[in-house]
């Protein structure tokens, strides 16, 4: 097997033993926690910068523009410059705001993002927490973010913020249902909620291909509902610049605004990573049944590269939605969820159960 | 049953229209060489403006330093913000008649909105829109231009 070289579980185990030799078990645990925390922080900061740059370039290409071109070759340092600007901006404190909640809100949003990141399997052995209820955990913690948004809108003491937050709450709570139900469809198929088991059982074929029609329907529903849950266009009416002057983050500036901004982009990554893990085989290489030489070549590409390739593919698709479709009205958003996605999802669960019962899958 | 059929057909129709939209933007994305943005100062040497672009009012002269302007002043009357001033003079023709001719066609580009009315109004087609758009100057007085070149005169056979 090609990808034993790329197995990270041995490496982390050896590091753990090495720390135990050097220090007491308590200290070793603290050091490991610190390392993991710092690497997640670094990853979020760097990947957030990359995502903002990618979004601007992709958006430009969809509109026949060039995007940022001046700071560095092809504008690659543009987002770094923007980030420095954000850090140096004044933190404006609203006089009539609820100060404690106003300061707390960005952190709640960021913490929810952090918590959801913890269970994502980046490669074999490269996963911080491997719960046996992994998917359940992700859907649970990712909905904490909406509390942060509601708090931000309420504590700003601004009508635009409050309207934006309420819209966002109505939207995320409704679409949470679709995300969860489409994931439930795949849980029925996989027979497990543990993300590492789900990835491992896609070794001989991705669930999107194995589960054919019901999996495809679930994938489409997941993409739509996931886009809505990240508050991105065409479902971005919570922060609709043209009507609400930014929605729930109207009153935020500087680094607090950057937190909301970063959390939104990292949520995009999380949605794409969950789609990759559950539908597209996670870090598993692409294999075609019996073409042995092709499969061997595919095995040489490291799993982490596979993971990020697939994630970038899904993220590109979501960006494609954003820069193609016009923004939906509130009633249209709720109609789409309650009249279309939810009934289709429920029928789809039945269909998937039938497929599993009759073993009518690859 | 009919309602169910209608429901399903709406779903597929909706997906179809969404895919049509994605096809359009996808075509833009995957043909980046058709991008309309230009890198301006870099491509200054090769930049060619479009024929309909209105950069400034110019008065073309032929190789004998002759133009088509009769000094009638219609362009001055038509200019909505007074950026054209016509100073005319009286000249004796070969037959000994007095005839009005242009002395100075003064053009204040700082006041011009490039509306094209003067060019449309000109009965002899003496002024046209040029395509130079780099008008930045250090001194405001340089924005006042005289369009007829010194020593130029009206071309033969221009009817008033």
What secondary-structure arrangement, pairings included, does this model have?
The complex is a heterodimer of chains A (362) and B (160).
Chain A: H1 9-22, H2 25-62, H3 78-88, H4 99-117, H5 134-142, H6 145-155, H7 159-190, H8 195-200, H9 207-210, H10 212-229, H11 241-244, H12 254-279, H13 292-300, H14 303-322, H15 330-358
Helix pairs in contact in A: 1-2, 2-3, 2-12, 3-12, 4-5, 4-6, 4-12, 6-7, 7-10, 7-15, 10-12, 10-15, 12-14
Chain B: H1 2-29, E1 56-58, E2 66-67, H2 74-78, E3 84-92, E4 98-108, H3 117-121, E5 128-130, E6 144-146, E7 153-154
Parallel strand pairs in B: 2-7
Antiparallel strand pairs in B: 1-5, 3-4, 4-6
Q: What is the subunit organization of this protein?
A: heterodimer
**What low-confidence regions of chain B span 5 or more consecutive residues with pLDDT below 50?**
none
Reported by name, the CATH topology of the largest domain in chain B is Alpha-Beta Plaits
- In terms of DSSP E residues, the strand content of chain B is 15-25%
| Total of domains of chain B | 2
Q: Please count the helical segments of chain A.
A: 15
> What would the principal axes of the Cα set say about the shape of chain B?
elongated
Structure, described:
The complex is a heterodimer of chains A (362) and B (160). By secondary structure, chain A is mostly helical. Chain A has one domain. Chain A is built from 15 helices and no strands. Chain B is of the alpha+beta class and 160 residues long. Chain B folds into two domains: 33 residues; 99 residues, Alpha-Beta Plaits (2-Layer Sandwich). In chain B, the strands form three sheets. In chain B, strands 3-4-6 form a three-stranded antiparallel beta sheet, with no helix packed on it. Chain B is elongated and about 100 Å long. Chain B starts with a helix and ends in a 6-residue tail after the last strand. At the A-B interface, helix 2 of A face helix 1 of B.
């Amino acid at each position: 097997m090609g990808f034993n070289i790329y197995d990270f579980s041995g490496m982390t185990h050896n590091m753990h033993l090495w720390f135990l030799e050097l220090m007491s078990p308590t200290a070793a645990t603290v050091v490991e926690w610190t390392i993991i925390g710092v690497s997640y922080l670094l990853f979020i900061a760097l990947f957030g910068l990359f995502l903002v740059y990618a979004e601007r370039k992709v958006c430009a290409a969809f509109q026949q523009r060039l995007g940022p071109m001046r700071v560095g070759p092809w504008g690659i340092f543009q987002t770094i410059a923007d980030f420095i600007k954000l850090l140096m901006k004044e933190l404006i404190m609203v006089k009539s705001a609820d100060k404690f909640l106003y300061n707390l809100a960005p952190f709640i949003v960021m913490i929810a993002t952090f918590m959801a990141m913890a269970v994502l399997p980046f490669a074999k052995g490269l996963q911080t927490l491997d719960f046996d209820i992994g998917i359940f955990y992700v859907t649970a913690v990712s909905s904490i973010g909406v509390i942060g948004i509601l708090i931000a809108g309420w504590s700003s003491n601004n009508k635009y913020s409050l309207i934006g937050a309420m819209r966002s709450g109505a939207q995320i709570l409704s679409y949470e249902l679709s995300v969860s139900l489409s994931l439930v469809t795949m849980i029925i198929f996989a027979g497990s909620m543990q993300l590492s088991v789900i990835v491992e059982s896609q070794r001989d074929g991705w669930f999107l291909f194995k589960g054919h029609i019901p999996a495809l329907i679930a994938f489409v529903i997941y993409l739509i509902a996931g886009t809505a849950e990240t508050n991105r266009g065409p479902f971005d009416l919570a922060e609709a610049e043209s009507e609400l002057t930014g929605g729930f983050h109207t009153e935020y500036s500087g680094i607090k605004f950057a937190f909301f901004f970063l959390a939104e982009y990292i949520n995009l990554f999380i949605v794409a990573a969950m789609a990759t893990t559950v539908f597209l085989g996670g870090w598993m290489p692409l294999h075609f049944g019996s073409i042995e030489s092709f499969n061997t070549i595919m095995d040489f590409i490291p799993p982490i590269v596979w993971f990020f390739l697939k994630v970038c593919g899904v993220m590109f698709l979501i960006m494609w939605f954003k820069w193609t479709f016009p923004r939906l009205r509130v009633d249209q958003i709720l109609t789409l969820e309650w009249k279309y996605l939810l009934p289709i999802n429920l029928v789809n669960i039945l269909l998937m159960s039938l497929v599993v019962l009759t073993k009518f899958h690859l | 049953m009919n309602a169910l059929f209608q429901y399903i057909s709406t779903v597929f129709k909706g997906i179809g229209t969404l895919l049509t939209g994605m096809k359009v933007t996808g075509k833009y994305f995957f043909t980046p060489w058709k991008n309309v943005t230009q890198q301006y100062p870099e491509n200054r040497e090769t930049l060619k403006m479009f024929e309909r672009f209105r950069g400034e009012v110019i008065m073309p002269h032929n190789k004998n330093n002759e133009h088509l302007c009769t000094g009638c002043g219609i362009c001055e009357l038509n200019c909505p913000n007074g950026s054209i001033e016509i100073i005319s003079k009286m000249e004796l023709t070969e037959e000994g008649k007095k005839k009005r001719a242009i002395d100075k066609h003064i053009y204040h580009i700082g006041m011009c909105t490039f509306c094209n009315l003067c060019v449309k109004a000109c009965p002899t087609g003496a002024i046209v829109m040029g395509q130079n758009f780099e008008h930045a100057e250090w001194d405001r007085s340089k924005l006042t231009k005289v369009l007829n070149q010194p020593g130029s005169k009206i071309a033969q056979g221009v009817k008033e």
